[in-house]
Amino acid sequence: MKTIKKILVAIGNESSLNRCLNVALPIAKGVGASITGIYVLAPRPRNLYVALEQSWRKYEKENAQKFLEIAKEKCNKEGVEFDQIIAKGQPRETLLEHEKDFDLIVLGRADWGSKLLGSVSHGVVSSSKKEVLLVK
Predict the structure, then answer these.
(1) Which CATH number covers residue 68?
(2) Please, which residues have CB within 8 angstroms of residue 76's CB and are 6 or more apart in sequence?
């Protein structure tokens, strides 16, 4: 069995934050691992409406800080060491770039009510050389 000392938790919104941390925290506590939350800033707006708003990048950075601060507080409350990464790029590629420093990647799958994986979760599961835990 592989030793888990460092867990990378993908945070994209409040829902994924809560779902992923609810799974990652007991694992980290149980094996004495640390958690690093990663929030990936989109390289461009997600749609035309958002692109027309000049404040979309500021709003996204504020969300990143807010969600990572919530994650830090939850980890501190449980006595789990926490670190954070704010990166810019395509989520799938960015997660795969950071995987080398971690033993386990925890990420949520698209919540479309289907059994299908989203492009990010499918790409990470298909290409990662590390253990990946998908959270529904």
Answers:
(1) 3.40.50.12370
(2) 82
